[in-house]
Amino acid sequence: GSISGIHIRMFTFTLLTEQQSELQTGLWFDLVGKHWFKHWLLLTSAAGLLKKVLVSGSEVTFAFINANMNWTQAQSYCRNHYTDLARVRNMADIQEIQTLIPSGQRVWIGFHRAVWMWADGSRFSFSYWRSSEPNGPGENCTSADLGDSGQWEDWDCDVQTPFICHNGKPPVSL
Question: Which domains does the chain have, with CATH numbers?
Fold first, then answer.
């Protein structure tokens, strides 16, 4: 289709098990003609869990998992199905992730502390804290308001919220 000179390509798909029963359905789409849409988006729903992933080449860049989990559960999910909770390296990463997230949605990313670091153990060279953050003793995990400004807040790690995974191949099932 076409909207104001922007062409949209969409493809539906269904993954089947060996017994030919439906495993997962979804929709791939991209917007052609806008350099900032250089990725495909995949929307799927399996076992009641809505996912959206950005794909660059053959690899998932970021995946939004719309399921409420605490930070540790989200990290475990990401490590089992992708690589880890999202590591946000720069503003370009924030802008890419924002294409996945509903307005106003806050999500877990992989930033946490004893000393602030990424879930994979790497130190940070980029941060995007909201003014007056981090501010809470005992708030050792990072939520990003990536559905809006993209800025980060420190939260109690037991809060249940959707989350962003990064890198790795998309899982066939959940």
Answer: 2-166 (3.10.100.10)
